[in-house]
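S.,

Sequence below, as promised.
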Amino acid sequence: MPAKKKPPQRRIFVLDTNVLMHDPTAIFRFDEHDIFIPMTVLEELDAGKKGLSEAARNVRQVSRFLDELMAGAPKQQIDRGLELPAAKAAIGGRKPPRGRLFFQTRQLAVGLPDTLPGHGADNAILGYTAALQREHPAALVTLVSKDINLRIKASIIGVHSEDYYSDKTIEDADLLYTGIQELPANFWERASRSLESWHDQGRSYYRVRGRAVAEWAPNQFVHQPGEHGIEAIVRRIEGDAAVLEVVRDFRRERHGIWGIAARNREQNFALNLLLDPEIDLVTILGPAGTGKTLLTLAAGLAQTLETNRFNEIIMTRVTIPLGEDIGFLPGTEEEKMEPWMGALMDNLEVLTQSQEGGSWGRAATNDLLRNRIKIRSLNFMRGRTFLNRYIILDEAQNLTPKQMKALVTRAGPGTKLVCLGNIAQIDSPYLSETTSGLTYVVNRFRGWAHYGHVTLARGERSRLADYASDAL
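The prediction came back faster than expected:
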C-alpha cells in the first residue's frame, strides 16, 4: 500500500503593524493559514489612523476590514478565531481551506532574553511571537514584518521571521522587462525562408516567423549590431509571426527633436516611443544622467508647440513624504512645487539655450514655455481628468501600485502619460525594487498595443558624472 501523505505543517503568521499599513488586504492573503494580531499592533494602528497620508488611509481601511469580520461575533467566537474569506474559488465542488484570524485575548508569558533591553512595541511583538511558538510547538510560527531591523532581532533570539511577499510584482528586479532585445547573429538566415517585406508611407516593414517571436511583446525593440544590423520595433504579433517596423533615427543633428539628438541606441528608442501618436503610456527607466527628463521634455515641447498635438505639458513628481500637505511654502500650488522641480528647470535651460535671438529671444521663449508647461502636485490629482495633455510623472519609483493606478486613470482622451524613474533610488521606506508602482506598471502593461517601455543604460551627462557613477 502507498504510504499515507503527511498532513502539511500548520503555519501561524504574526503580522507586524507596517505590513497592514502597507497593504490593508494583507489579512486575506495567507490562504489556509492562521493569522495572529497582537494587541500592540492594534494600538499602533489606532495611533496611525489620523491624517491624509497613504499610510493613514490604509490604517482606516484595515480597521474597516476588521470591523466587518467582527460584526456580531460573540467573545467565544473571537477566542476561537474569526473565519477569513476564501481567497481562491472552490475546486471540484469543494471549498478551499480557510484560515482564521486571532487576536491577543489573554496575556502570554513573554520570556524574552535579558539581552533584549527595553519594552518597546517591537519587543512586545517579538515576545508575543516567541510565546505563540512555545504554545504551539507543532506549528511553524512566523513573524511577518517589513522592518529589516525587527527581522534581524527575531533571528538573533531564534524567532522565525519573513518579509511580506504578497505585494511583490516581480521576484527579481534583474528580470524586469527592459523593452529591448538583441537578435542573434543568425536570426535573418533562419527567418529568410518566410520573410516578407514592404514599404508603406515611407516606412519599412518586415513580417518574420520563428521561435523568438513567442517571447516578444508589442512595441518592444529588437536590434542586431554590426554594419548591416537593424533597429526595429515590434508593431504587431500575429500568431507565430511578428510585424517589425524599422525605427526612425534621431541620432543626427538634422533629425533632432527641439534641438536634441539621441546619443545612443536606447535614447533613440525612447524618442521613437515618445513621438509615436499610437502609444498612450510610456515608461522610461534608467540611472541618473541617462537623459530621461531631457528627452521626454523635448518630445513634449515638439508635440505641444510645433505640431499642436497636445494643449499643454503637465509636469509632476513625487514629493517625499507623498500625500502630506505641501504647505509651509508661500504662494500658489505651482509656486509650492517649484522647489521640487529643479530637474525641469535645468532641462528647460538646455532646451532654450540654443534658441536664436540672444537673451531677449530666450526670455520670450521662456515666457512662452511657462504658459504651456504647468507644474502640478500629486496631492490634488484625485478626481481630475486630463484631456489632450502631455503628462510627465518624474520619480515614479516612489509610488505604490495603488497610487500609480490612481494617477494612470486620470488620463482622458488624447492624453499621453510618461512615467520616469530609477528603481535603484527608492526613497519611500516601505517600497523596494520589486514592490514599486513603477515596476508594477511595467509588468502589467507589457503586451498592450498602446504601451511602450525602454530602459536607458548609458549615462550621457558628462565624463565626470559617468566616471563618478562607476568609481564612487
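The mean pLDDT is 82.

Coffee later?
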